[in-house]
Write a structure and sequence with these properties.
By secondary structure, the chain is of the alpha+beta class. It has helices at 3-12, 24-32, 101-117, 141-150, 203-216, 264-276, 299-312, 327-330, 356-374, and strands spanning 38-41, 49-54, 60-66, 86-88, 91-93, 124-130, 157-160, 172-174, 176-177, 179-188, 192-193, 230-238, 245-246, 249-258, 281-290, 293-294, 317-319, 336-339, 353-355. Strands 1-2-6-3-7-18 form a 6-stranded mixed β-sheet, covered by helices on one side. It has a 4-stranded antiparallel β-sheet with strand order 12-14-10-15. β1 and β2 (49-54) form a beta hairpin. α3 crosses α9 (356-374) and α7 (299-312) packs across α9. The chain binds zinc ion (ZN). The site of zinc ion has 5 residues, from loops.
């Protein structure tokens, strides 16, 4: 059995549902310390964070990952138990196989081979791990970055091992992400009997035209690097359950995934302008989950393109789609950030898996990126 596969199976056996780590970071530390990596634990509240660094020279290359996984969902629906790594038809099944313990295992063995062949490589290599990427992520990478910034430890290149690939391993890399802005809106009305509407004020009726406008708004056209900004309503709650009561309020949650054409303030202004036209009273709470970022074509993207071409023979594609990742906390420091990892088709699903060959190819790509940047 390959080194990478063996390590991945060890990690999957640990049921590290957010914010648990279940010893995954110990396993990585045990693997990398003998190669000259220094260990630093940066735990905050319920979240375990790990910073392993080899060397002090610039430039600094960082592999960023998370050891936590999303919940399994119904156990009955899994063909094999989610925390018992199982091979079927050339694939390894288990929670975290693709998101993102596969990427982690591939990177660890890539480092092992690279350091063995290039003991006097240029620059430094670091591994940053958190146990809360899939949750609210307030005590994870965002805090580790604060520590690094405070002591002027600068990241030059950051590779996030998140599942970026679409049909074939390495066919897509993410070079940026859309921003994410969440809104919680409460529209106030006056509760009353449906038979006496003149004594009540129906907030559902008042909100309906505003909802239509919000969902039809053309926020922007996107640009060369980003698709158009989109607003999606995720929850609407109202009503007492009784059929003869006009409700007193409506609660609505929506989210905007936005391009670099807009910012948080413009979106808020335009949203309030739409709502204010309709004359109902409301309360709004906003939460910015991440600003959009874009890594410009430079050493890191070039190294990734060349490595994928060398190992697989095909050209990769730059992309900015998908959900948010911890890369959003690294990009503001000025680092070049890309995401490159397994095929994302099965992530967060029942029967999550990774192709065994993909795992080896991914590890070879990671090693080639290190060669391209640090030798
Ligand atoms: Zn992930």
């Amino acid at each position: 059995m390959s080194n990478t596969l063996e390590l991945l199976k060890d990690l999957i056996r640990r049921p590290s549902v957010t914010p648990l780590d279940e010893g995954c970071q110990d396993v990585l530390t045990d693997r990398l310390k003998p190669l000259g990596f220094s260990e630093e634990r940066l735990d905050f509240v319920d979240t375990q964070n790990l910073w392993l660094r080899k060397g002090t020279a610039k430039p600094l290359f960082v592999f960023l990952g998370h050891t936590d996984v999303v919940p399994t969902g119904s156990l009955d629906a899994w063909v094999s138990p989610p925390f018992e790594p199982t091979i079927r038809d050339g694939k390894l099944y288990g929670r975290g196989a693709a998101d993102m313990k596969g990427g982690i295992a591939a990177f660890v063995t890539a480092i092992e081979r690279f350091v063995a062949k290039h003991p006097h490589h240029q620059g430094s290599i670091a591994v940053m791990m958190t146990s809360d990427e899939e949750g609210i992520a307030t005590n994870g990478v965002v805090k580790v970055v604060e520590v690094l910034e405070a002591r002027h430890e600068k990241i030059d290149w950051c590779l996030v091992g998140e599942p970026s690939s679409d049909k074939k391993i390495g066919d897509v890399i993410r070079v940026g992400r859309r921003g994410s802005l969440c809104a919680k809106l409460t529209i106030q009305g006056i509760q009353g009997h449906v038979a006496y509407p003149e004594l009540a004020n129906n907030p559902i009726h008042n909100f309906a035209p505003a909802l239509k406008e919000l969902t039809e708004e053309v926020w922007d056209q996107g640009n060369h690097n980003f698709p158009p900004t989109s607003l999606q309503v995720s929850n609407i709650h109202s009503g007492t359950g009784a059929e003869n009561i006009i409700p007193g309020n409506v609660e609505v949650q929506f989210n905007l995934r936005f391009s670099t054409e807009l910012d948080e303030h413009i979106i808020k202004q335009r949203t309030h302008a739409i709502l204010d036209k309709h004359g109902f009273s409301y309360d709004m709470q906003w939460r910015l989950s991440g600003n959009p970022f874009l890594t410009k074509r430079g050493e890191l993207i070039e190294a990734a393109h060349a490595a994928i071409k060398t190992i697989t023979g095909y050209e990769t594609k730059d992309d900015t789609g998908g959900g948010t990742s911890d890369g959003r906390f690294i990009a503001p420091t000025g680092a070049q950030v890309i995401e490159l990892g397994p095929i994302n088709e099965s992530i967060h699903k029942i029967n999550e898996h990774i192709d065994l060959n993909d795992l080896e190819v991914l590890s070879a790509i990671y090693e080639q990126i290190l060669i391209n940047l640090l030798t």
